[in-house]
Protein 1
Amino acid sequence: MPDEAERKRSGWGWFAIAAGLGGLAAYLYASRIAARNYRLERVKVWLGNGMDKSNQPVIEKGKQRFSILHLSDLHLCRGDDDKAAFLKMITDEEYDLVVITGDIFENESGFAYAPSLLTRKPRLGAYAVLGNHDYYAYTLFNKTIGEVVRPWSTPSQMRSVAGHIAALENHGYRVLRNELVRINSDKLAIIGIDFPTIEREDLDKLVGETEPDELLIALFHKPKNLAMLSQAGIKLALGGHTHGGQVRVPGVGAIITKSEMPRSEASGLVWRGDTAFHISRGLGADPRTNIRLFCPPAATVIEVMSEI
């Protein structure tokens, strides 16, 4: 009969096998199922004098009502047929605005999916800003060693985004790179902030070109210096980059956010002063690290009511 030491070794062996199989099953679920469980979610936001600090309406009717489809972090590349079909379906609805807040194409193979990014033209137009994965071609070295040695986390050279912009603008989007668009018919002004951010002087210059009765909306990729946007008079700002953390621990939140956002605010609707920020979980990630647990990929319809 086996002695006590042998029984312990056998027990640890079976435990290691079970742990390994459990880890493999979790990885396969997170990468093959959860990462492709695309959702279309909805959120309402009240802006201006018709909003209290709990974001509850204190008026019966806003001066402005409009809908925005917020897309982000698509990371489109070869093999994304299911994601493209989802995008084609959800953009076939009626919206006032459709926006994409960066990390749109992982590489040039993703350009083939550009026709799926906008099925129906929104009433007030479609706009996009670029993100870090649009500007940089990350290597496995950046994604592994660079996570430990931060100066190596980003490639040394930026790549041309001419192809990215052409793919978007040929299919209905206007790409904004620290630019302003004013929609006079609805008293809206949209500022598109290029990655990584915008200088305060340049932001103030763009805001200065708007009228006091216009609702200011900002599009950005990485949440960075959100207080600056609020201080500049932006009332609604939409961004991404965090992927909601990709892996969330129930009761704790995102493990990492790769931004200034705390774990509890890695995605969703958050406030800085009187400014509402919607941080998208996005629909994708770098295909080498595209896993999701308790953090399904999502696009969001934002219903806006404003007294501004």
Protein 2
Amino acid sequence: MSQFAKEGAAYQPVDHQGKACEGAACAGARVSRTGKIKTRCMNKSNAVLGATLGLLAAVTVLTFVLMDYGDTPLLEATSNALGDSATMLTQPGLGGHFTLPDLVDGLFVSLALATLTTVLGAVIAFVLGLCAAMNLSNRVASNAIKAVMSLFRAVPTILWVLIFTVAIGLGPEAAVAGLLFHGIAYLTKAYSESFEEVDPGVVEALRASGASWWQVVFSAVVPEKLSEILSWTFIRFEINFVNAVAVGAVAGAGGIGYQLFLAGSFYYDIHEVGLIVYFCFAVAVALELLSTQLRKRFIVQN
């Protein structure tokens, strides 16, 4: 806090060393010799962040330099890749290998797979999230559930799908099981952290009035965190759709992912690949718009 030195009839602010100061210097801001406020001040955290980013950039450049490209000319390959990408995005179309109804049918298969895994995962994760929340469960159960879910999240979705493909066999069952494991672990963490942010005073007041555990959940937790539950669920739905497209060929689940695999790896039709990519892009935009409308209608207005 600034002090004041009496000089005649006027008071002049002084800094912590007793020297006269004025303006931003008295407010604690760092100023240059010309009196301008310094917007970029180097401190320990900024120095560590800059050094880390510089190290990562150097490692990335070194990796590209030392990478074994074989006999492939890097500049020519890069030019061809950019040209194929431009063709894919600017000239999408059917090449005779698939019909438009085939692509639409495959798109709905992938959507159905994403919807099934999201709904099942959200229901299971909701219960596990309640049991993992520190303010709604005991410490032992909470820590145990969080530890198990951390192990599930550590394994990528594609590995879960491959594990169940070996255990169950090719088909949509392996894809559903693989997507469920990672989705449940993801949503359990998101839900439990949201539940732990509920006002503890409201929870204690309900418990003091004799409310049961489920009454506390549906009277205090769910109404306050419904917006976050909806947001996290739709985010996971988008992730599950992307994963359903990616594992369509790996797990033999079919859908538009399998058609994308055929168009790119067997038929080498860049135009069909572009059309399928635009189909997936349209679904992502539609899901985002649907999520926004639901939040406005059922959450914001309430």
Protein 3
Amino acid sequence: MNHISAEKLLDSMFDGVYFVDLDRRITYWNNAAERITGYNRSEVIGSRCSDNLLRHIDANGHQLCQHGCPLAATMQDGKTRESSVFLHHAFGHRVPVSVRTSPVRDDAGQILGAVEIFSDNSSSLQILHEYERLKQDAYLDQLTTVGNRRYGEMTLSTRIYELRTHDIPFGVLFIDIDHFKRFNDQYSHKTGDDVLVMVSKSISFSLRKMDSVARWGGEEFIVILPGASQVIVKSVSERIRMLIENSFIMAGKDKLNVTVSIGATMSRPDDTIETIVGRADRHMYLSKSRGRNRVTEDEDHE
């Protein structure tokens, strides 16, 4: 049997793998790590994970690379750990990943560093299959690769029908990028496009499998949450807002942070597409008037 190096084996894995030494300096970065994060190994080898390269955050938006790093804790106490976090992709959006950390020891049992194995939790295959169907039916927004307005209207019609015939409620979020004109005017339309793509991906990675997102027009998106309660609507809204707030893109040497204002509403028995979208839109504008980067729900408006 031909000898296969450990590096070739690791590069054949579907999961991302990287090693750090005791100084948390990255010494190895496999092919899957490049694919999942968008960072080439030449960009990360020799840098410290404590430099906040991947900028892991938890579901509450806490910056784990600065406080609560699983790798640092594993090297300190020698225990393996598993957690779900959101890493920062090279293109700016957040990617949900499952992270497992283990200590690396020498022959004497002394800890030399740690290894992190991480896998994409974004249900990418299901998303790709859905996008292929959208492409065939001309329901895809070409820039952001989420559904277009036609797709959003079709999905809303289906949910309204389910509401009237089976009494199945749903929620709608109206999302608008804050100060979007500034990105186009101060930088370029290409930068504006990059912001739209980053926001659309961050929204998509925040949703449940049955949820839908569509670009409604310009810098506006709608999210449709079938079977959702008010609690779920609030939770998803805040997760979207938090993930986008903790994401950014680079325009040359400038780091551009992005926020969104969100209006969230629950379906009502007599709703039409116009009434439910209009209500969510009004809530969104109230979020704008209250300082942006926030969520306004039905109860906040009333």
